[in-house]
Specification:
The chain is of the alpha+beta class. The protein is 38% helix and 17% strand. The strands form four sheets. Strands 2-7-8-1-6 form a five-stranded antiparallel sheet. Helix 1 crosses helix 3. The radius of gyration is 25 Å and the shape is elongated.
């Protein structure tokens, strides 16, 4: 399995200028390639091959006065920019033809120099190198200082240098995972995700929602109001934009760190993990949209999925239309829909249920049922994680308010 390891970079002022040139050249090559493809289509010409496109927008362009400065950056950076364009076209064609599942992918768009995020990629043929003094040697950029939070488990096959909206620089290494599976354990768990409690486990454990965005809302409001008062195009407005981006970055980093710790603990303690296939995209269009986005269910379940594949655990999603909150986990009786204000109920068999714990137990039971064969033996999925994508919306679903049984009204 291939994994990404991200580290913070601290380039010098001269290296920042070199990275800015590399970002700009990669963006120009991407846009030139996209423009050439569009002009060929409008003229009724055949689809331009990747090799012909590379020759036109890189090799021949460097010989012209208008694009001679493309030679100031590594040629691998320019080739990787075209590789991104070609992959975007392949995904677009696969999407409109039905060969790609999930949401429809739009055609490639031009990149803007005002984009908040800029990135370039160095493949193995670029001869980047991690030096003995801990610095990252990048061609035509120099030896960039790196904050190594942990060692790389193997030699990286590529590195992507990223500048985010907050002005921070990161190096994202792609390495081949060499982790051994964790020792097997007997326990399995079903997880019911919600807003009052971020996660309720089938063993009765309740994890409170941290609500990082809600806690930072006041400061974000002040910064956004200060930004709105700045004159457009001024230097002070640019500074205010960076302040807002840094505040949002702190919220995202805190959420990501908390989710990593929780997902690692769940995967370590359980042999199989089952969650509900929530329609996050649909819930993001309801009155609870801010709370849904603050929770970050999609990123959390993606962490559970790839960590399960990485450490030899089983992971599965159950159908979102399974009535987990309407079914008694003791006798299996379907008791009918209940408003979200009902947090506990008593079944006809006499069992008293906490709404969320009962739903988590039903998620566990349904997950075991879906992932067992005719003989009742557990069937593990392959150790390759599925591509991350949001679930679609069921055509007969009346919005998506039923998808999350753990939501409580505000």
């Amino acid at each position: 399995m291939q994994l990404r390891y991200n580290y913070r970079l601290y380039p010098t002022p001269g290296q920042r200028d070199a990275l800015a040139r590399a970002f700009g050249c990669a963006r120009v090559v991407f846009n030139d390639g996209l423009r050439a493809r569009q002009h060929a289509r409008e003229a009724g010409e055949a689809y331009m091959s990747d090799g012909e496109l590379s020759k036109r927008v890189i090799t021949l362009a460097k010989r012209t006065p208008e694009r001679a400065w493309l030679g100031e950056v590594s040629a691998v950076v320019l080739q990787q920019a075209l590789a991104d364009l070609n992959m975007a076209y392949r995904n677009f064609f696969a999407s409109i033809s039905g060969r790609r599942k999930g949401r429809t992918v739009a055609a490639p768009r031009f990149r803007s120099r005002k984009d908040n995020r800029q990135a370039i990629r160095f493949a193995a043929n670029a001869r980047f190198k991690v030096l003995d003094n801990g610095r990252l040697k990048l061609p035509k950029i120099g030896d960039v200082p790196v904050r190594w939070s942990r060692p790389l488990p193997a030699a990286p096959s590529s590195v992507t240098v990223i500048k985010d909206a907050a002005g921070r620089y990161f190096a994202s290494f792609v390495v081949q995972s060499t982790d051994e599976p964790l020792p097997p354990v007997e326990s399995e768990v079903g997880i019911d995700l919600g807003l009052t409690h971020f996660a309720v486990l089938s063993d009765g454990t309740k994890v409170a929602a941290p609500r990082f965005l809600r806690r930072a809302a006041r400061k974000l409001r002040w910064l956004q109001q200060d930004l709105s008062r700045k004159q457009r195009g001024s230097a002070n407005r640019k500074k205010a934009v960076v302040k807002v981006a840094r505040a949002h970055a702190r919220v995202a980093d805190s959420r990501r760190d908390w989710q990593h710790k929780l997902s690692t603990r769940i995967i370590r303690d359980n042999q199989a993990v089952y969650v509900e296939d929530l329609c996050v995209a649909g819930l993001g269009r309801t009155r609870l949209a801010r709370s849904v986005h603050d929770a970050g269910w999609a990123s959390f379940t993606a962490m559970l999925e790839y960590k399960a594949a990485r450490y030899g655990r089983a992971f599965a999603r159950i159908d979102r239309f399974v009535p987990t909150s309407q079914t008694c986990s003791a006798c299996g009786r379907l008791d009918g829909p209940k408003p979200l204000s009902v947090r506990s109920w008593t079944c006809g068999c006499g069992a008293v249920h906490d709404r969320d714990v009962n739903a988590a137990r039903n998620v566990l039971a349904q997950g075991r049922w879906d992932n067992s064969n005719a003989c009742g033996a557990q069937v593990r999925p392959a150790r390759v994680p599925a591509p991350r994508r949001e679930a679609g919306i069921h055509p007969d679903a009346a919005c998506a308010t039923r998808s999350v049984e753990g939501i409580s009204p505000r």
